[in-house]
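note to self — DONT lose this again. spent like an hour looking for the file last time. sequence + predicted structure for the chain T wanted, 332 res
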Amino acid sequence: MQLRVFGRTGMRLSVLGFGCGAVGGFMMRGDPAEQERVIARAIAAGVNYFDTAVQYGNGESESNLGRILQKLKPANIAVGTKVRLPPGDYGRIADAVAMSLEGSLARLGLERVDIFHLHNPITGTGGGNALSVRQVLDDVVPAFDRLRQQGKLRFLGMTAVGDTAALNQVIDARVFDSAQIVYNMLNPSAGEELPANYPAQDYGRMFDHTRTAGVGVVGIRVLAGGALSGSAERHPIAGPAPEPIGSAMSYEADVDRARRLMPLVKEGFAASLTEAATRFALSHPAMGTILVGMATPQQFEDALAAVQKGPLPQAALDRLSALRQPFSGEPR
């Protein structure tokens, strides 16, 4: 398994991380023995980053991951979890952040996590579930820093959802060590300029900002919530498709556009759309580790096999750009 240096942290993370999220649902609703087998398999294959959150099954994902890590006791792995603050806690951010992390550590059976990510959207002025740039920099970061000084977390992270300008402003402040960033074949805007009138949120070459700031990148929505399978069907234990996720405003529109990328498979660049999507996410040098949601052990095996083939070649990336051109001007 290839390892990449993760920003300025000094950590070397596997290019394939293990996503314990709600979209795939495996670490929330999968069979416990199967969960243990797949995590053991992942560790044996060289996966060393495991990503969860209290929001995934109201703590179920953290508890299941913690149970397995306590049993397997693997060496040299990194664990990340997250906090999402409800609006009712905006007046007591420091206490709410500390309480959330304490709960996460208890469920995970750990004394500290390697990365603690803020999971709220970030906008210029805040409102609703979103935090403003000033709330993040003036309230959240000091709260995270206190917990770091107490030895309960190693690195500060953020999930880059919200308004692009606000997100880039926070990254540019160089207070976060990690950013979870949407990057997939339907929306590559964190890494390159989008054509005019392209139907997706424009993340404004966010990787330029992370690289300058020394922020490590965790690639999320690599399969666009499952749409880049090219199928609208969802596994029984999978969560509902998240909408919107930075590309189309509906899952069906994402699936439709994903199917229009099938020439990548027919022309031999990849064995499947999911393989192409997984390898695409690795193709950008700013990427540290990618998370691929899963509902079954086979989906982990598929992701592992794709990663072992390495990034897509330039010819495939050029073909992909050509296939996306007709999307411009379509409604999001």
